Amino acid sequence: MPDQSIPQSLPEARPPVEAAEGVPSETSSPEGLTRRRLLGTAGATGLALGAAGGAVGYTAAPSQATPLSSIGAGEAMFHVKHQPGITQGLQARGHLVAFDLAAGAGRKEAAALLRRWSESARRLMAGEAAATDDTDVARDAGPSSLTVTFGFGNSFFTRTGLEKQRPVALDPLPDFSSDHLDKTRSNGDLWVQIGADDALVAFHALRAIQKDAGKAAKVRWQMNGFNRTPGATAHPMTARNLMGQMDGTRNPKPAESDFDQRIFVPSDSTKDPAWMADGSYAVVRRIRMLLDDWEKLSVKAQEQVIGRRKSDGAALSGGTETTAMDLEKTDANGDLVVPINAHARITRPDQNGGAAMLRRPFSYHDGIDPDGTPDAGLLFVCWQADPLRGFVTVQRKLDRGDALSQYIRHESSGLFAVPGGPATGEYVGQRLLEA
What we know:
20% of the residues lie in helices and 17% in strands. The chain is an alpha+beta fold. The chain contains ten helices and nine strands.
């Protein structure tokens, strides 16, 4: 993936976000907080340490780490231009879940389901209880930056009779040499991403979404992930993945002039259907890290595989984490300082015709196999306006000789069309389902 097969992720500390994106900055006034949010904030008394997830992301962090007391008060908006959960910073806890429509369910049932899901997401993201049968799991917490994101898989369009509205970009991904895919944990008619900075808040949303599915859809697969809690470090810094590698430098940055062009479908797109305006395409991959093999390497050998220093994320060619990598620099023996097959070299946009994607993953640990091998790695989620130009271009390059490939294994995969955010009064996907 992009500084990628272990893709790059967003920063742990919350950067200020423009009001248009519906996410307040860390210095936002607490005015307007609900009593529940204030209770959740006042009740926070300790830090939860979690292993960092992902690989690299943009670094636009405030001068100080997020105060612990502010974690519960963070709130993302539901009715925004782009669905929440795409440009927000890394969240401490995440759930990815795919559903298949039930036998006999079609367009009408799907529309009713998305209407229910959208209303639940709006309420829960505001720190409110579910409309019916709330479980009280999150009663004492604030919104905790909860985001809920919805997408459609290739098969959804056949199930609902909307084949003519299926984007060409949703054509199945090609096979890759590192694939060992479990089909039962891949794809799906519908996909939901849940993220929050509190584990109970995230689980509360997951349970609500599952209950809302009712008889219209059943769970196909579900995965749980985590990242370091905002405020867990003395100062904002790039995340580390379960290989211990700092990965957070080369993700596209919202401030870049071509960010929207590379990540979101334009409203005047000639190759995407109109209902995908301001949306994005999510590639979801469960990437198992072969940690026992990786940890046998010396730190120097690990750095040669990645092409960056483990201590601070700087390129082996020198400088700091953000110093541009010198691909031509050689050592005293005339050898390239950044190896020709180093992961960071291969995944650079300028080595892939400008291909780039926004990586926003979660780490995962699903226990230990009978032989003592940890089932751990990365729930890789990347966003792009065109998956063929983004993910597929880079992954094909990695297939041809990435040094990291022997230490990872892709075990499941999915590609989903994620429409733009719903306007006030709309539900996600309404422009598709009611066209």
